[in-house]
Structure formats: structure tokens, C-alpha cells
């Protein structure tokens, strides 16, 4: 495998290539920097509150949500293990699911110990990133043209699946997640380290200080909790489109967000609100993939309003694909109908 150097030359030395891959992916997973114009004062407030909550959790008398802290049973373990599939890639410990099916009693003892102490094996914090080219037409010598697929310890994913089951049940039974969130529906935080695997060789390890762990069962649920108050903030504007007796402001599928507005100024107001939220919570928006679509009758002119996220101008497009459906600004769904009929 080859990559470009900083001066545009093609690098072929294995060690140099691994270091290049490590640097590129390390930058992706550590975007928390001053150049991003984040709200540092809000960050300090959240950090102080987080420390306060952690101190409370260390108190022996702390007993919040005791119904979620019941003992793990051997049946819990068996259900988790028998749901796994054969032939799945394993993480740095090289232990596949096929082996774990014969060790339910050992897993039960391990999980109960972890659940009681809050201490996990350090290897569970490590991930191997396997690069997969996003687009076959893109240059294979550019690391950022690849998507890093994370390989985690199989047994760590079992434990996360157990924790996620209890957490998701609590969120759903208490109606905590916003109705607008349609993705991923049915502890303490720690940093994760990762390395890149190229040609069966591993790069040096690097720390991932932002985001949730890719490929972990808990990550989708944790992200849904994280983004939940964005829905409340956008809805607080009282803007959106009327559908029957309801007003719909936005749609969420995981981190894919659709804003709905009845006027140009309303849309810009909603974009400003999203931008403010992202600055506070240190989230970067991919403005290149963010588009505006003006739905209108065929005789009406398309808007020439300059929509912005922060200082970034957004492109107005006539087509956009969302969750597999192609939308047209003139509300023409013939392409989708033809595609579905051909598939049928």
C-alpha cells in the first residue's frame, strides 16, 4: 500500500506508511482544539458538574436507579452469547465469539466482578482500525478516503450489550429520548486507544479523546442521550412545518439531522440554534455534506437566500438522498417509485 507524503511524494516504506495512517486517524478522533471555536466556558462548567456527579457516585450511600443494578444472572449471559454470530472479526485479544459460547460460567463471574467494581480490563479500551475505501473512484493513496472500521474485543462487546439492554430499557420506560430520534431505538466514561492495521501490520497506539467508541453496543444509546437536548432546543423556537395538528421542527436518525421550516428566516434561525448547540457541546458539523432544499411548486423560483452554519455557506440543492430515499425540490418521487418497482 502507498500513501502521499506531506510534499506530495509517494511513500512506500512500511513504517512510514503506518505512521502516516496513524497521524491521519489520530487527527480525526482528536478534534477538540481551540481552532474549532468551541465554547470553553461551557466546557469548564460541564467538567465541574461531571466531577461532582462522579464524587457522588463514589459515596457508599449513593443508590440511584437501584432497579438497574440487580445481579447479573447466568441466563442473562447465555441469552447474550447465543445471540452472537459465527465468523465475526475479533479485537486485539483474538478471542472470537465461537470460543465464548463454551465459557458462560467464566463470563458470568467476570461480568459480575466488573459490574460490582466498575473496573474493566485495559484491553477492552483498545480498538484496531481497519481502513475500507469509501469510494472506489477515490485516490487509494489518501488515508482520509478510507473509513476506519473498528475491531473490538468480542467479550467487551458482550458486556456492552448487557449494559446497553438495561440502559435502553430505562430510557424507553421513562420516555427520556425525544420522539424525533428514530435511530438506535427498539459507568463511567473512559478514553479509548486505537491503532491502524495496514497489510496485517499495526501502527503505534494513539488516544481517541472525542466521540463514542465505534462498534460498541453502548455507543448508539450514549450518543442518543448526548444529542437529546438538541431536539428540545430546536423545538423551543416554536418553528417548523404544520402536519395536521402538530408542528414538526426536525427529524433525527442517529446523527443525521433534518430541519424543517416554513420560511427562509425560520430555517436560518434553526441553523443558528444548531450551531450554538454544537459550539457548546464541541461538535463539528460537516458543512460539505449539509445541504438546503427548497420544496416548491414547479412554477415557483428556487430560493436564493444565503443559508449559513456559522461562517460557512450552505449549498442549495435540487436533489438529496436521505436514508435511501431521493428527494426532489419539486416533490417528484418518480425516481424512487421506479427504483422500488425494479427492486420488487
UniProtKB/TrEMBL annotation:
It holds the Pfam family RVT_1. InterPro entries: DNA/RNA_pol_sf, Rev_trsase/Diguanyl_cyclase, RT_dom. PROSITE patterns: RT_POL. Residues 1-327 form the Reverse transcriptase domain. This is Reverse transcriptase domain-containing protein. It comes from Mytilus galloprovincialis (Mediterranean mussel).
